[in-house]
Design a protein that fits this description.
Layout lengths: L3 E3 L4 H8 L10 E3 L24 H13 L2 E13 L2 E8 L2 E7 L10 E8 L3 E8 L8 E4 L7 H4 L4 H13 L4
Length: 175
């Protein structure tokens, strides 16, 4: 199970694939600050980009941000609930909807909604999730296996996370 890997993806194709059939695609790419916060949410971004489509200007913006502090690309979004003795998650990824069930309730954190994706820097890709900064703070990126947020949520022992890591790894478009 690989959490970090060399950046050998085609960023443009991966972004296009990730936001396929999502008309509000600007919610799927965020610039990151040096400490992995997503300043766009708080209106403090150094450079905001407004656009109507995924044109060359949009990808120029992404490329600049990758070379600054990186970008976060949401690849999947999910909702979760307890149904009897199982946790049920509905996962939206590109133009697909998948379900994941587990009876390992001690190893998962069932959340109402969450998103997962990749941090893209010039050298590496890191898989993780958006974490709420708490107390009205800006959300930030946390990699799988980190002690940020709830350790069960980010744990590599979490069966949902194992599934998502594999799913997202297969989703990346190589160069």
């Amino acid at each position: 199970m690989e959490i970090r890997r060399e950046n050998n993806i085609n960023v443009r194709k991966t972004v296009e694939k990730a936001i396929n059939n999502h008309p509000e695609f600007h919610f799927f790419v965020d610039e990151l600050s040096a400490n992995n916060y997503m300043p766009t949410y708080a209106g403090m971004a150094d450079e905001k980009y407004t656009y109507d489509e995924m044109d060359d200007g949009f990808f120029d913006f992404i490329e600049r941000k990758i070379h600054e502090n990186g970008v976060y690309l949401r690849i999947c979004y999910l909702t979760g609930e307890i149904v009897g003795p199982e946790a049920l998650f509905v996962i939206e990824i590109a133009d697909e909807t998948l379900t994941f069930k587990t009876s390992e309730l001690d190893d998962v954190l069932v959340v109402e909604m969450a998103d997962y994706g990749i941090k893209i820097t010039p050298d590496e890709i890191i898989l993780g999730a958006t974490i709420d900064g708490g107390c009205g703070q800006t959300p930030y990126f946390a990699e799988f296996g980190s002690s940020n947020c709830n350790e069960t949520f980010m744990s590599l022992e979490n069966p949902l996370n194992k599934f998502l890591i594999t799913l997202m790894g297969e989703f990346l478009e190589s160069i």
